[in-house]
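Extended Data, panel c. Modelled sequence:
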Amino acid sequence: MSRILCIAWRDFKATVVRKAFLLGVLGIPLLIVGVMVVAAGIIIQHEEPPLIGTVIVVDTTGEMTAATKSAFTQEQMDDDQRAEAKQAIEAAEQLVGGQLPTEGLSPSMPLKRGVVNVTIVGEPNADDDTIATLRGEVQAGKILAVAILDEGLLAAPGPDEAAGEFELFVAKHVDTDHTSLIERRIGRAVVDARTARAGVDIAASRAMLRAPRSQTSRISETGEARAESEDLREVRQMLVPMAFMMLLWIAVFTSGQHLLMSTIEEKSNRVMEVLLSAVSPLQLMTGKILGQGGVGLLIMLIYSSLGMTGLIMFALMNIIDPSMLVYLFVYFFMAYFMVASIMAAVGSAVSDIREANTLMTPVMLLLMVPLMLWMPITQAPNGAVATAFSFIPPTIPFAMILRVAADEPVPMWQIPATMVWGWVCVVGMVWMASKIFRVGVLMYGKPPSPVELIKWLRYS
């Protein structure tokens, strides 16, 4: 046992003390945080380019032209932007479960936005020659846009009818944000003109149609009521499972890759032969797997600690259940020993990384399935696909971490069943890896085929 621990410590230390490892494990999170800070600073300091020019509204009634002029006033645009910001803050408050500052929404305080100085000019003449002339002016850049608003837009659509559409011709130099702004403001103006013709108070109608907020609470098995919102449900359903999946994937495959590379390196430079003079092949393989397992566990602890710190800072601890962390580490060990047994077997059988890639390709394709099926599994964690891959090694831990982290509870019998079956598969895979490792570490020359690897399993 002491020899196995010596080998494990040797592999762990040789991997962790390298500058490349420290740069990769610690540098990547720092780089991500740095990029996020820089991006946030750029977004805060960014100012929209000015939108200055003329928009021609072809409207035979004149009603939609008047409404469009009102929609493009600075006061109206500020009021609408404050309303949108207030809705966004209310959604964020539901997500974090607290109150956010709303000082910037004061009616007397102007919002930060690029200069918008659009002159609306009505054109009652809607014949083809007039429209062709106006399109030519848009093409030449003399005016920003031309909107053709048919009188039929003022008719109230039926319950099953579309709200209608209008033609908008925009100059080439108008960017996408400003194009969307023009579309929204004209669309709003059409609705205002339609309701005014119907004799309906538009402000009262909007207030009446505003849906009430839901204070939804999920009742746990212990009877505890935990508040949640629609945004919170979407985060828990999609992003949380993916975050757990990627954390497991990074920790397992980083340490597994180090195990593969170190095994190939020691075999190619004949260090393996020196080590085998002091320990048995089984002891050597066990020590290397345990050593790189410590590397994977270190990566897991670092990244999970950073993630938990971020959740605490942003008051989002309510989006995960503490049991998920327990499942994460249980499935990490299961996933690591499955992947490590494959890496150790392949690394001992070849003498070059290119040869290893040939043998690893089928396994990697199978292990990529949970990543490719991330969305179907999280949307239907109890579906046939998710359940099937929860019992197929070596995808068991990766599929299960997606399922247990999803919003829909997994049948309780499947969690212990997959754990028992998973650890049975771990024992079998480690046993097969030890057979291949014992034969492969001292074999050189042409790399074995998958059929030859199967034959090695029968050697006593």
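Confidence is low (pLDDT under 50) at residues 102-112. This feature is highlighted in the accompanying rendering.
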